[in-house]
Amino acid sequence: MKRIILALAASSILTAGAASAETLKVCAEGAYPPFSKTNEAGDLEGFDIDIANAICDEIGVTCELQATEWDGIIPALLEKKCDAIIASMSITEERKKAIDFSEKYYNTPARFVARSDADFTIDEDGLADMVVGVQRGSVHQDFMEKTFPEVELQLYGTQDEVYLDLQSGRLDAAIQDSIAADDGFLKTDAGDGFAFIGGNQNDPAIHGEGAGIGVRKEDVFLKYALSAAIAALRENGTYKEINDKYFEFDIY
Question: What is the dihedral of CA 78, 39, 188, 155, to 10 degrees?
Answer without folding.
Answer: -30
